[in-house]
Amino acid sequence: MSVLRLLSLSELARLREIIRILIRYGLDDLVGYLKISPLIAAKDRILLRRAPQNDPRPVRLRKALEELGPTFSKLGQILSTRPDLLPPDMIAELSRLQDRVAPLPFSEIERILEDAWGIPPGEVLSFLDPEPIGQATIAQVHKATLKDGTQVAVKIRRPGIVPKVEADLAILSVLADLLETNLERSRRYRPREVLREFGRILRQELDFTQEARNLERAAHHFRDDPEIVIPRYFPDYLSEQVLVLEYLSGIKIDQKERFPEVGTTPERVARIGARAILRQVFEFGFFQGDPHPGNILVMRGGRIGILDFGMFGTLSKSWRNLLVDLLTALSESDTPRIVGVLRRMNAVPEEVDTLLLESELSRFLEEYVNRPLCEIRVDLLAHELFALSREHALKLPSDLVLLLRALVIMEGIGRQLDPDFNMIEEARPFITEQFLRKFSLEDLLRNVKISSRTAIRIFSGLPEAAERLLEKAAQGNFRIDFSLRHLDDLIREIDRTGNLLALSILVSSLVIGSALIFSASLSSHSSFKTLGLIGFSGAGILGFFLAIAILRSRRF
């Protein structure tokens, strides 16, 4: 356990606390896999195991994560967005994770604001509601009013949470190393890679300046759309710990019985909401990663307000083109092309059996061939794709998984609002437009320009590279290393086949030679008759062993 030496004494104490909680919830097998149980006394392990465990494993894991605190609760919440890694029952349970945090005292809120702004909050705000309108693991939100009468929402990060999160991330990093080292079957789920991604997302959510940039970017994208509202932030009061936003007043998108109050209908809201997420994906390549009902408001006049850009995904133009290629291949049931696109996404590891994957894809697509578009649901397609990903250990990019999850959530909201809502039908014009844009004259010219620059750079460097190569050759330092992997089986097969071929030639030569000798001995009454018979006997024995070898190989 030399990797544990990377932890400080306080981190080791925290690790012991983590072990105790895991054992108390009947997750000591996980502790065993990590080989960290010796960190606590044997008698403590026995006492902790005595607690009755009647709940299913996913429930026990959720409760353990809740008790372990903010970082682990957030880990569970983010893992609940990764159905490509975890089975449906685990995803469903982790989605129920609750933030076990008490609201900060109002005096603490005032102190944090004064530290962030350098002046008492009363000089900025004419009103600050002492009761939070929302609270979670990382922050809590209070309604307030600026001196000029503007209603705002003040988002405040919990004090001391950053060092706690960093300490927990250090411990989780060590645990991920231990898991990959000690449990071979865990490697297909790439714990280290998943943890790095988790750390990146969590650090972004802890930095409110990042969320402000996301809001600014989203507002720029929707600047000409009268049906979409992105709350503006106030840069004068922005810090890593405090974010002041325009307060949006409206109805949660899942409260359709109240839509007449703001002059709209569920059908219209469903289509505006779908168009908003589809524009983010296909037009902007930047989308809100968590469009649950609490983050979407229906405002007066039927406008849609989008809140909370702490979690977001990005798709470059190249990735959007790959996405269109994937959707096109899926619609045409072209399994080799689907696998090809997944390979271009670096989603198919080398060890994956491509033929088996194509076969599984064909079976999956057969269920959707010749179905009307209105019967195809994004959630069912995503469920099948994630099941395939888990079965074949595919490495689906996190932004692609986040995108599919966002579409599934939006489809669910749309179907609640309008039973006839179909996300694929809504997405069709966006996919078509992206396909046409891919082959537009502007994009073709841009690709030609990029390719030309690359070619010029390569060719301009050729003389210098050739000169260096010739100098090395002249100095006797020229060497080419070949690394041929996974050829052992092929070499053995060639070797065996060569041996069988040589034996076959030897048997044939003996038969022909013996026949010639035997026929000569008959015509001349020569004594070579015995030699001919010996040759025939040897050829027969060798031929027998040759036949056995061929029959054993089962390749005839």
Automatic annotation (TrEMBL):
ABC1 atypical kinase-like domain sequence ranges: 96-339
The keyword Transmembrane helix is assigned to this record: yes
Pfam families: ABC1
Chain segments annotated as transmembrane: 500-519, 531-551
Database matches in PANTHER family: CHAPERONE-ACTIVITY OF BC1 COMPLEX CABC1 -RELATED (PTHR10566), PROTEIN ACTIVITY OF BC1 COMPLEX KINASE 7, CHLOROPLASTIC (PTHR10566:SF113)
Family the UniProt entry places it in: Belongs to the protein kinase superfamily. ADCK protein kinase family.
Protein name (record): ABC1 family transporter
Protein species of origin: Leptospirillum ferrodiazotrophum
Lineage, opening ranks: Bacteria, Pseudomonadati, Nitrospirota, Nitrospiria, Nitrospirales
